[in-house]
Amino acid sequence: MSTFEAVLASCGHADFTVLDVRNDDEVEKEPPVKGAVHIPLGELPKRVDEIPKDRPVLVYCAHGTRANHAASFLIQECGFSAVFPTTNRDSAQEIVQQVKAHADEDNRAATSARIKRGALIVGAVVVSAAAVAAVAWWIPRRRSSHDSK
């Protein structure tokens, strides 16, 4: 299972936290993924409370080693249940984009389903209205044909 698939299986399309454990010098050269929490690995034990425990965490660094250490620490020492290390910033960015695209696709499908349900309801209302109109048209004519006999 790929990291993307693991994140997706864990959170569906709900929010997840992206954690950048690179050092400050690395972040100055290449900024974190948009929306990521930046906590250098050495500061993680002191700052772990900045990471929400109630949602999955995608962790990255420059090459994957520190991300693996951070993931182990978060799971074993801090009680996090869904932590996914990935190799680098580009990989993290790709996973974020894939999850977002998947969520967007599901949202489009849900919107389409709501539109179809709405169309069915409108269709049923139109048919019902037509039936009522037909009965309303037919009853007076039937009465007048009985009255003329």
Structure, explained:
The protein has 149 residues and is an alpha/beta fold. It has helices spanning 3-11, 24-29, 44-47, 65-76, 89-147; strands at residues 17-20, 37-38, 57-60, 83-86. It is built from five helices and four strands. The protein has one domain: Rhodanese-like domain (Oxidized Rhodanese, domain 1), CATH 3.40.250. It has a four-stranded parallel beta sheet with strand order 2-1-3-4, with helices on both faces. Strand 3 (57-60), helix 4 and strand 4 (83-86) form a beta-alpha-beta unit. This is Rhodanese domain-containing protein. It comes from Perkinsus chesapeaki. Residues 12-88 form the Rhodanese domain. Keywords: Membrane, Transmembrane, Transmembrane helix.
CATH class: Alpha Beta
| CATH architectural grouping | 3-Layer(aba) Sandwich
Counting DSSP E segments of at least 2 residues, the number of strands comes to: 4
CATH H-level name... which superfamily?
Rhodanese-like domain
Strand arrangement, largest sheet? Answer: 2-1-3-4
Main sheet overview:
4 strands, parallel
Gyration radius from CA atoms, angstroms: 29 Å
Strand proportion, as a percent range, falls in: 5-15%
List strands and helices in order, with pairings.
Layout (H helix, E strand, L loop, with lengths): L2 H9 L5 E4 L3 H6 L7 E2 L5 H4 L9 E4 L4 H12 L6 E4 L2 H59 L2
Parallel strand pairs: 1-2, 1-3, 3-4
InterPro entries: GlpE_sulfurtransferase, Rhodanese-like_dom, Rhodanese-like_dom_sf
Protein name: Rhodanese domain-containing protein
Keywords: Membrane, Transmembrane, Transmembrane helix
